[in-house]
Protein backbone atom coordinates (compact mmCIF):
# COMPACT_ATOMS: atom_id res chain seq x y z
CA UNK A 1 0.00 0.00 0.00
CA UNK A 2 1.32 3.44 -0.90
CA UNK A 3 1.72 6.13 1.75
CA UNK A 4 -0.14 9.46 1.69
CA UNK A 5 0.65 12.66 3.58
CA UNK A 6 -1.30 15.91 3.49
CA UNK A 7 -1.26 19.19 5.37
CA UNK A 8 -3.84 21.99 5.48
CA UNK A 9 -3.32 25.11 7.63
CA UNK A 10 -4.74 28.52 8.47
CA UNK A 11 -1.31 30.15 8.09
CA UNK A 12 1.66 29.08 5.91
CA UNK A 13 3.46 26.27 7.70
CA UNK A 14 6.46 24.08 6.96
CA UNK A 15 6.11 20.31 6.99
CA UNK A 16 9.71 19.43 7.95
CA UNK A 17 8.78 17.54 11.14
CA UNK A 18 6.10 15.37 9.54
CA UNK A 19 8.17 14.78 6.42
CA UNK A 20 11.09 13.54 8.53
CA UNK A 21 8.94 10.64 9.70
CA UNK A 22 7.20 10.20 6.36
CA UNK A 23 10.48 9.95 4.43
CA UNK A 24 11.52 6.96 6.52
CA UNK A 25 8.55 4.97 5.20
CA UNK A 26 10.11 4.93 1.76
CA UNK A 27 12.51 2.05 2.38
CA UNK A 28 13.55 2.29 6.04
CA UNK A 29 10.53 1.59 8.28
CA UNK A 30 8.40 0.26 5.42
CA UNK A 31 9.02 -1.41 2.06
CA UNK A 32 7.75 1.30 -0.29
CA UNK A 33 10.71 1.90 -2.62
CA UNK A 34 9.13 2.84 -5.96
CA UNK A 35 9.46 6.62 -5.87
CA UNK A 36 8.10 9.55 -3.93
CA UNK A 37 6.92 13.11 -4.45
CA UNK A 38 5.66 16.21 -2.67
CA UNK A 39 3.82 19.35 -3.78
CA UNK A 40 3.58 22.68 -1.97
CA UNK A 41 1.09 25.37 -2.94
CA UNK A 42 2.55 28.87 -2.88
CA UNK A 43 -0.08 31.47 -3.73
CA UNK A 44 -1.42 30.42 -7.12
CA UNK A 45 1.71 28.46 -7.88
CA UNK A 46 2.76 24.94 -6.94
CA UNK A 47 6.27 23.76 -6.15
CA UNK A 48 6.53 20.03 -6.99
CA UNK A 49 9.40 17.64 -6.25
CA UNK A 50 9.35 14.13 -7.77
CA UNK A 51 11.91 11.32 -7.67
CA UNK A 52 11.53 7.65 -8.74
CA UNK A 53 14.21 6.71 -6.18
CA UNK A 54 13.25 5.46 -2.69
CA UNK A 55 12.74 8.46 -0.43
CA UNK A 56 15.31 7.22 2.12
CA UNK A 57 17.98 7.26 -0.62
CA UNK A 58 16.85 10.40 -2.44
CA UNK A 59 19.01 13.55 -2.29
CA UNK A 60 15.88 15.47 -3.30
CA UNK A 61 14.08 14.15 -0.22
CA UNK A 62 16.97 15.29 1.95
CA UNK A 63 16.68 18.75 0.40
CA UNK A 64 12.97 18.87 1.18
CA UNK A 65 13.48 17.60 4.73
CA UNK A 66 15.82 20.50 5.52
CA UNK A 67 14.10 23.16 3.40
CA UNK A 68 11.34 24.92 5.42
CA UNK A 69 8.95 25.66 2.56
CA UNK A 70 5.83 27.24 4.05
CA UNK A 71 2.48 26.45 2.52
CA UNK A 72 -1.24 26.34 3.30
CA UNK A 73 -1.67 23.00 1.49
CA UNK A 74 0.82 20.18 0.95
CA UNK A 75 0.40 16.71 -0.57
CA UNK A 76 3.07 14.00 -0.48
CA UNK A 77 3.17 10.38 -1.63
CA UNK A 78 5.45 7.36 -1.33
CA UNK A 79 4.80 4.79 -4.02
CA UNK A 80 4.53 1.03 -4.00
CA UNK A 81 4.00 0.23 -7.67
CA UNK A 82 1.04 -1.97 -8.59
CA UNK A 83 0.29 -0.67 -12.09
CA UNK A 84 2.84 1.18 -14.19
CA UNK A 85 6.62 0.91 -14.14
CA UNK A 86 8.86 2.76 -11.71
CA UNK A 87 9.43 5.89 -13.74
CA UNK A 88 9.31 9.63 -13.18
CA UNK A 89 6.07 10.03 -15.15
CA UNK A 90 4.37 7.50 -12.86
CA UNK A 91 5.48 9.23 -9.67
CA UNK A 92 2.82 10.95 -7.55
CA UNK A 93 1.55 13.57 -6.89
CA UNK A 94 0.20 14.57 -10.29
CA UNK A 95 -0.52 18.13 -11.37
CA UNK A 96 -3.04 19.67 -13.79
CA UNK A 97 -4.78 23.03 -14.34
CA UNK A 98 -8.54 23.54 -14.03
CA UNK A 99 -10.48 26.85 -13.78
CA UNK A 100 -7.21 28.76 -13.75
CA UNK A 101 -5.81 26.94 -10.71
CA UNK A 102 -3.38 24.09 -10.25
CA UNK A 103 -4.78 20.85 -8.85
CA UNK A 104 -2.58 18.26 -7.11
CA UNK A 105 -3.58 14.60 -6.63
CA UNK A 106 -2.10 11.49 -5.03
CA UNK A 107 -3.72 8.04 -4.77
CA UNK A 108 -3.23 4.98 -2.62
CA UNK A 109 -4.84 1.75 -3.84
CA UNK A 110 -5.51 -0.24 -6.97
CA UNK A 111 -8.36 0.07 -9.49
CA UNK A 112 -9.45 -2.93 -11.58
CA UNK A 113 -11.33 -2.97 -14.89
CA UNK A 114 -11.18 0.81 -14.87
CA UNK A 115 -11.35 2.43 -18.32
CA UNK A 116 -13.23 5.74 -18.18
CA UNK A 117 -13.97 7.73 -21.31
CA UNK A 118 -12.00 10.98 -21.39
CA UNK A 119 -12.86 14.01 -23.48
CA UNK A 120 -9.22 14.68 -24.33
CA UNK A 121 -8.82 17.79 -22.22
CA UNK A 122 -7.04 15.83 -19.50
CA UNK A 123 -4.92 12.87 -20.54
CA UNK A 124 -2.47 10.75 -18.53
CA UNK A 125 1.23 11.04 -19.32
CA UNK A 126 2.19 7.81 -17.55
CA UNK A 127 0.41 4.46 -17.35
CA UNK A 128 -0.92 4.33 -13.78
CA UNK A 129 -4.53 3.87 -12.76
CA UNK A 130 -3.96 6.77 -10.37
CA UNK A 131 -3.21 9.38 -13.03
CA UNK A 132 -6.07 8.05 -15.14
CA UNK A 133 -8.44 8.52 -12.18
CA UNK A 134 -7.16 12.07 -11.66
CA UNK A 135 -7.82 12.91 -15.32
CA UNK A 136 -11.29 11.36 -15.04
CA UNK A 137 -12.09 13.46 -11.95
CA UNK A 138 -11.00 16.73 -13.55
CA UNK A 139 -12.64 15.87 -16.86
CA UNK A 140 -15.95 15.25 -15.11
CA UNK A 141 -15.70 18.45 -13.07
CA UNK A 142 -14.85 20.52 -16.14
CA UNK A 143 -17.84 19.17 -18.06
CA UNK A 144 -20.23 19.54 -15.15
CA UNK A 145 -19.13 23.02 -14.08
CA UNK A 146 -18.09 25.52 -16.80
CA UNK A 147 -17.07 27.85 -13.97
CA UNK A 148 -15.79 27.08 -10.46
CA UNK A 149 -18.71 25.78 -8.35
CA UNK A 150 -19.52 26.71 -4.77
CA UNK A 151 -17.57 24.69 -2.19
CA UNK A 152 -20.60 22.57 -1.25
CA UNK A 153 -21.31 21.73 -4.90
CA UNK A 154 -17.67 20.81 -5.49
CA UNK A 155 -17.65 18.62 -2.41
CA UNK A 156 -20.77 16.74 -3.47
CA UNK A 157 -19.42 16.18 -6.98
CA UNK A 158 -16.16 14.79 -5.58
CA UNK A 159 -18.05 12.58 -3.15
CA UNK A 160 -20.05 11.08 -6.04
CA UNK A 161 -16.91 10.57 -8.12
CA UNK A 162 -15.09 8.93 -5.22
CA UNK A 163 -17.91 6.40 -4.84
CA UNK A 164 -18.07 5.79 -8.62
CA UNK A 165 -14.33 5.26 -9.06
CA UNK A 166 -14.03 3.43 -5.75
CA UNK A 167 -16.37 0.73 -7.07
CA UNK A 168 -13.37 -0.47 -9.13
CA UNK A 169 -11.12 -1.07 -6.13
CA UNK A 170 -9.33 0.86 -3.40
CA UNK A 171 -9.46 4.62 -3.82
CA UNK A 172 -7.76 6.46 -0.97
CA UNK A 173 -6.72 9.87 -2.26
CA UNK A 174 -5.66 13.42 -1.44
CA UNK A 175 -6.64 16.27 -3.76
CA UNK A 176 -6.11 20.02 -3.47
CA UNK A 177 -6.58 23.18 -5.51
CA UNK A 178 -4.61 25.32 -3.08
CA UNK A 179 -7.74 26.50 -1.27
CA UNK A 180 -9.01 23.24 0.20
CA UNK A 181 -7.57 19.79 0.68
CA UNK A 182 -9.90 16.83 0.04
CA UNK A 183 -9.16 13.48 1.66
CA UNK A 184 -11.07 10.33 0.73
CA UNK A 185 -10.67 7.19 2.80
CA UNK A 186 -11.48 3.85 1.20
CA UNK A 187 -9.52 1.69 3.63
CA UNK A 188 -6.93 3.51 5.71
CA UNK A 189 -6.45 7.23 6.44
CA UNK A 190 -6.15 9.25 9.66
CA UNK A 191 -5.80 12.91 10.59
CA UNK A 192 -4.95 15.18 13.50
CA UNK A 193 -5.71 18.86 14.05
CA UNK A 194 -3.03 20.67 16.05
CA UNK A 195 -4.18 23.85 17.78
CA UNK A 196 -3.57 25.64 21.07
CA UNK A 197 -2.75 24.46 23.64
CA UNK A 198 0.09 22.78 21.77
CA UNK A 199 2.16 19.87 23.12
CA UNK A 200 5.20 17.75 22.38
CA UNK A 201 4.98 15.30 19.47
CA UNK A 202 7.21 12.27 18.88
CA UNK A 203 7.58 10.62 15.48
CA UNK A 204 6.68 6.94 15.17
CA UNK A 205 9.26 6.30 12.42
CA UNK A 206 12.19 8.34 13.78
CA UNK A 207 13.37 9.22 17.28
CA UNK A 208 12.53 12.90 16.85
CA UNK A 209 10.47 15.04 19.22
CA UNK A 210 9.27 18.62 18.77
CA UNK A 211 7.56 21.07 21.11
CA UNK A 212 5.06 22.96 18.97
CA UNK A 213 4.82 25.71 21.61
CA UNK A 214 8.25 26.84 20.43
CA UNK A 215 7.15 27.04 16.79
CA UNK A 216 3.58 28.36 16.80
CA UNK A 217 1.31 31.14 17.95
CA UNK A 218 -1.96 30.60 19.86
CA UNK A 219 -3.98 31.31 16.70
CA UNK A 220 -2.29 28.71 14.51
CA UNK A 221 -4.14 25.58 13.38
CA UNK A 222 -2.73 22.73 11.30
CA UNK A 223 -4.40 19.57 10.03
CA UNK A 224 -2.13 16.67 9.06
CA UNK A 225 -3.52 13.68 7.16
CA UNK A 226 -1.61 10.41 6.74
CA UNK A 227 -2.18 6.80 5.77
CA UNK A 228 -1.19 5.81 9.30
CA UNK A 229 -0.38 8.16 12.22
CA UNK A 230 3.04 9.78 12.02
CA UNK A 231 3.38 10.26 15.79
CA UNK A 232 3.01 7.79 18.63
CA UNK A 233 2.06 10.14 21.48
CA UNK A 234 -0.85 12.05 19.94
CA UNK A 235 -4.50 11.15 19.41
CA UNK A 236 -5.15 10.76 15.68
CA UNK A 237 -8.66 10.48 14.26
CA UNK A 238 -9.28 7.46 12.03
CA UNK A 239 -11.36 8.43 8.98
CA UNK A 240 -14.16 5.88 8.43
CA UNK A 241 -13.93 4.02 5.09
CA UNK A 242 -16.21 5.56 2.49
CA UNK A 243 -15.75 9.09 3.90
CA UNK A 244 -14.72 12.23 2.05
CA UNK A 245 -13.44 15.13 4.14
CA UNK A 246 -12.72 18.69 2.99
CA UNK A 247 -10.09 20.51 5.03
CA UNK A 248 -10.04 24.32 5.06
CA UNK A 249 -7.98 26.64 7.26
CA UNK A 250 -6.63 23.73 9.25
CA UNK A 251 -9.80 21.81 10.08
CA UNK A 252 -12.49 19.62 8.46
CA UNK A 253 -15.47 21.51 7.06
CA UNK A 254 -18.95 20.81 8.34
CA UNK A 255 -20.31 19.40 5.07
CA UNK A 256 -18.09 16.30 5.22
CA UNK A 257 -20.20 13.21 4.49
CA UNK A 258 -19.83 9.47 4.32
CA UNK A 259 -20.49 7.68 1.04
CA UNK A 260 -22.46 4.48 0.94
CA UNK A 261 -19.97 2.55 -1.17
CA UNK A 262 -16.81 2.71 0.10
CA UNK A 263 -1.76 34.12 4.43
CA UNK A 264 0.02 36.50 6.24
CA UNK A 265 1.45 34.92 9.37
CA UNK A 266 3.96 32.07 9.20
CA UNK A 267 3.97 28.88 11.24
CA UNK A 268 6.87 26.43 11.49
CA UNK A 269 7.17 22.71 11.88
CA UNK A 270 4.04 20.61 11.31
TrEMBL record:
Keywords attached to this entry: Glutamine amidotransferase, Transferase
Lineage top rank: taxon: Bacteria
Record carries keyword Transferase: yes
InterPro entries listed in its UniProt record: EgtC-like, GATase_2_dom, Ntn_hydrolases_N
Pfam families recorded: GATase_4
Stored CDD domains: YafJ
Identification of the protein by name: Class II glutamine amidotransferase
Amino acid sequence: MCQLLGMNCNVPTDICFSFTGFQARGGLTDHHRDGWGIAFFEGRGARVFLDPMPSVESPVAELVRHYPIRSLNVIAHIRKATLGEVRLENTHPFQRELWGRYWIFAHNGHLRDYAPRLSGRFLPVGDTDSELAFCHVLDTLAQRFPEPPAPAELFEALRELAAEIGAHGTFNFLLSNGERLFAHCASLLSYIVRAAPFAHAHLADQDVTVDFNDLTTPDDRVAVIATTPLTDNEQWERIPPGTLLAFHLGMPEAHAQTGAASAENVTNGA
